[in-house]
Amino acid sequence: MALTLHSPLDMHLHLRDGEMLHNIAKESAHTFAGALVMPNLVPPVTDKAALLAYKARILEAIGDEHFRPNMTLFFKPDYDRAFLETLREEITAIKLYPAGITTNSEGGVSGFDVEELRPTLQAMSDLGIPLCIHGETNGFVMDREAEFVPIYEKLAKAFPKLKIIMEHITTKESVAALERFENLYATITLHHLIITLDDVAGGMLQPHLFCKPIAKRPEDREALLDVALRAHPKVMFGSDSAPHPKHAKEACGCAAGVFTAPIALQVLTALFERHNALEKLQDFVSGNAQKIYGITPIPKRVTLSKEPFTVPAEYNGVVPMYAGETLEYSIKEVTDG
Amino acid sequence: MALTLHSPLDMHLHLRDGEMLHNIAKESAHTFAGALVMPNLVPPVTDKAALLAYKARILEAIGDEHFRPNMTLFFKPDYDRAFLETLREEITAIKLYPAGITTNSEGGVSGFDVEELRPTLQAMSDLGIPLCIHGETNGFVMDREAEFVPIYEKLAKAFPKLKIIMEHITTKESVAALERFENLYATITLHHLIITLDDVAGGMLQPHLFCKPIAKRPEDREALLDVALRAHPKVMFGSDSAPHPKHAKEACGCAAGVFTAPIALQVLTALFERHNALEKLQDFVSGNAQKIYGITPIPKRVTLSKEPFTVPAEYNGVVPMYAGETLEYSIKEVTDG
Q: A337 pLDDT exceeds 80?
């Protein structure tokens, strides 16, 4: 049995920089037609020169793969409108991080006063630039995302023409918020469709499944699966694939992030098949994102076959999800067009 | 400023066996007058010969420290009454583990049918042997203890003369259960008075704070603090100090357990002082346990002084809680009598 996906897109991806970028970028570029690339470098991507230089480094790192990095700018509340206009063609979205909430987010937003954020948000709304948000408060780890929902709603109400994407949602509260405001959308990762906190800390502690937002409760996973498996038009696949070197994951004080880029499509295919939802996978991994962002990806055909694939223990020093395990589906062929 | 504790007791302690026993037993034996020693060895302690041999190994490991190991037997549902009678003077309690719920608990109980458990429980009730339970279901990690409360209550009701100790409680639900049945008691660890899941997984992942039951929510910690700080007569200190080698904690698939034995009294003193509850500490760390178990510990005076103590990075290869940090209180003097 084989299945062909057309131009799969990963709408939330960490490609990092330097050696790590070179070590892992091809893993995404081989099987995806494009990805929304997160700007949380050190320092974050906040100007045109940095953005273009980062894009050039990405293109260099992926070599001859056909892959389009959709670039994002790191949100600042006081971006000049003219500045954003000059960048409009270069960026697909702007990514907002609450300060200190995850890897390299120290320069993010503290407090969510609408008037303070208005200069950038109004310009984005006028220019049609979507806003991506890592929506967590600094509250108790299991409550952070649900506590952020009122902030999503405040922003959605204040800027009704601004498309706001709730990134890597993990809770039933975020799923419910999708229905309350027309301009709220969401990305969902692979791992949050599969694991709960039980998989991270219910048996032995599993650092390679530790991420932010942390995986939540079974009923949260069910809510995510419900909208993903029917390719709800407001949700898109975004892996949040976030590589760290093995030693930084298997350590006292382990960094947050799950590396799923090389196995995402194989696992999603098996998951959607198991739920009799294979016909919805194309929209979840590409169609919905094209409509929400108004983008046309480069043509790419990825054929998966139901042949076992044993996941390598590491990809250039990064341990992937399912390392050493055997998946049901393999990437059989990738062709342009 | 100095404070003297009389015969402090640790009513839930893992001393392990072999090399680990030799590496860590003195850390408890130095500052505690006694401890309730858990029987989850491989194989578990289920007969008199094994019990006496383990006790002898403990006494050998602690050398010339004055310390009484209060021994426990690993619960089996069908212990012979005559067998328990012959052991009555040798054991302080019997410890029940649900099967597979924590380290070396594979031989524990599956299902909690009162009639199946009756042979041992009725004999224990008649002989006045307290029952210690690791109360967790195999449900979602944050719910396991609260889900077990009905089982505690079923047993408390079926055996009203049996003293049942809810071990290392972590939730407000367990605290509330204390009030509902006269024969329910509880131990509380040091770390569950201090940390929540936030400390384990809210920032970077902290394997040395990963334990079973896992630390819960802020309101759960508040409920534990409330009964501990007033030395509620049904609660006792039990560290659940559970050493693992450093490499087993800082690894992919980290083992559960926090090693607190060498720092427990120092940290408890600072904690009770901060809450203006120093006058309750003696009962929490000794008096309540003496009454609940009807035991008279060996005399020991442990004097703590308000002098900084920097916690070693390791004790013979085991990383303690607060490794490398400086505590407010030090052990100043330990004397017999």
A: no
Closest CA to B328 of B3, B13, B33, B8: B3
Q: What is the Cα–Cα distance from B225 to B231, expressed in whole angstroms? A: 10
Q: By CA distance, what is A255's nearest residue in B?
A: B204
Q: Could you tell me the two tokens for B236? A: 């006792």
**B199 given a catalytic annotation:** no
Check A204 against B250: CB less than 8 A apart: no
Distances (CA, A) of B88 to A251, B37, B72, B127, B245: 45, 16, 10, 8, 34
A321 lies in some domain: no
CB nearest B205 (choices: A142, A196, A207): A207
Could you tell me which residues are beta bridge partners of residue B69?
A: B35
**Which region, left, alpha or beta, applies to residue A211 given φ > 0 means left and ψ of -120 to 50 means alpha?**
beta
| b/e map A128-161, b = 16+ CB within 10 Å | ebbbbbbbbbeebbbbbbbbbbebbeebbeebee
Specify the amino acid at residue B84.
L
> Is A290 among the domain residues?
yes
Task: Say if residues B333 and B5 touch (Cβ distance below 8 Å).
Answer: no
> Per-residue pLDDT averaged across A175-200, rounded?
98
- In angstroms, the separation between the Cα of residue A250 and the nearest Cα of chain B is 5
- Element counts in chain A: helices (H) and strands (E): 12, 13
Q: How many domains does chain B have?
A: 1
Instruction: Give pLDDT tens digits for B43-72.
Output: 999 999 999 999 999 999 999 999 999 999
Is residue A90 within 8 A of residue A50, CB to CB? The reply is no
Among the partner-chain residues A201, A205, A255, the one whose CB lies closest to the CB of B204 is A255
Q: Which two structure tokens, joined as six digits, stand for B76?
A: 């089996």
**pLDDT, tens digit (0-9, with 9 covering 90-100), for B127-168:** 999 999 999 999 999 999 999 999 999 999 999 999 999 999
Q: Which domain holds residue B26?
A: 2-336
In a domain, A185, yes or no: yes
Report in angstroms the alpha-carbon separations of A221 from A216, A224, B202: 7, 5, 19
For A308, other C-beta atoms within 10 Å of its C-beta total 9
**A327 part of a folded domain:** no
Secondary-structure breakdown of chain B: helix, strand, coil percentages, each rounded to the nearest 5:
40, 20, 40
ipTM: 0.93
CATH of the domain at B89: 3.20.20.140
State the Cα–Cα distance between residues A5 and A264, nearest whole angstrom: 13
> In sequence order, which residues have a C-beta less than 8 Å from that of residue A61 and are 6 or more positions away?
A15, A21, A22, A25, A26
Burial of B238 (0-12, 13-18, 19+ CB in 10 A): buried
Q: Residue A328's Cα: distance from chain center in Å? A: 24
Question: Which token pair is A68?
Answer: 């389009």
